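Late entry, written up from scratch paper. The run itself happened at the end of the previous shift, but nothing got recorded in the book at the time, so transcribing now.
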Amino acid sequence: MKYYIIAGEASGDLHASNLMKALKEHDPDAQFRCFGGDLMAAQGGTLVKHYRELAYMGFVQVALHARTILRNMRLCKDDIVAWAPDVVILVDYPGFNLKIAKYIKTHTQIPVYYYISPKIWAWKEYRIKDIRRYVDELFSILPFEVPFFASHSYPIHYVGNPCVDAVAHFKASYTESREEFCARHGLDPTKPIVALLAGSRKQEIKDNLPIMLAAAKHFTPQALPRRHRDKQFQWVIAGAPGISEEMYAQFMGGNEASHKLQVTTLHGETYALLTHAYAAMVTSGTATLETALFRVPQVVCYYIMCGRVVAWLRRMVLKVRHISLVNLVADFTVVRELVADEMRERELKEELDQLLLDTFYRERMQHEYDTLVLAPLGEPGASEHTAAKMVELLRRGK
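Output as recorded:
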């Protein structure tokens, strides 16, 4: 069969490429044409347009590139019609993909499948109308989306979460001991490691890392209460892809806190770091879920300028109580979220007190990971489950 797949950013390229690999196992004659990235091309997809030419974020960027966006959308629509695939598979990226879905359903008989559903449960709930009209089958990677869409009389498929697959794959192949990991990076295997996952974008790092380092200074041996001075923590930053060493160094070089801390930056080793971490400070996003999958106690951090205004808007606009995937999956406050006006040195220090020094608090969080997060996510195999269901539905003519 012929599959036309559209992914508009790096994460979509990754998830789509894994799906393509699984589709080939269930359909040896599979052909792929796509808007996507290098990973999709590596799986044999004919790349019509790279996602780098699609990914414009924010109102200003979208306005400045409006002509390019419209031109790419027209190209996509025309190319789908000309190629006449058996199915169009949309991967996340709702601003672009829902418009494509509308066009395909109103101008052709081609079925439209959506993998990694738009997060309309957080905001823009009105998009459920478009999903009902223009999407034939929706494949979700978050278990709490099933009852949400069911409440709108729209049944969907929960297929598992790709993070579960990625972490399970890493654990199965990772053999390095703590001693070997520490020796390779100049760390002390006898001292607990605290991981700092300060975000993947420069602005996130600028906003969050200085506060993380400021809170960390309260946990040097000199600053700790006498009964805890035997604990000497090591602070390790997980370097994000595409972010230079110099970007992180500017915060450590002139930061009073960093002079008292043992701070190391590691690039491309986030999963290895989490394997050996005692606790973590994590900027909200997929990383919060990955940290839970490694059972590392964490605090979620997301500083935003004009925090009080943003906090008020969040209460007015967002439909959910939590922002971290950990708490959203659990539907419960498993980890503390310091967001907007709450992301301050004092509050972060208070939470670190419990994460680093309170054994009961740590063990309770790990137990809640197991029962409220990992259990609902299910076993690995998201791509395989999705591919099998898609091929089954297509062969049944749905």
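The domain at 2-160+381-395 is CATH 3.40.50.2000 (Rossmann fold).
(Scratch paper discarded after transcription.)
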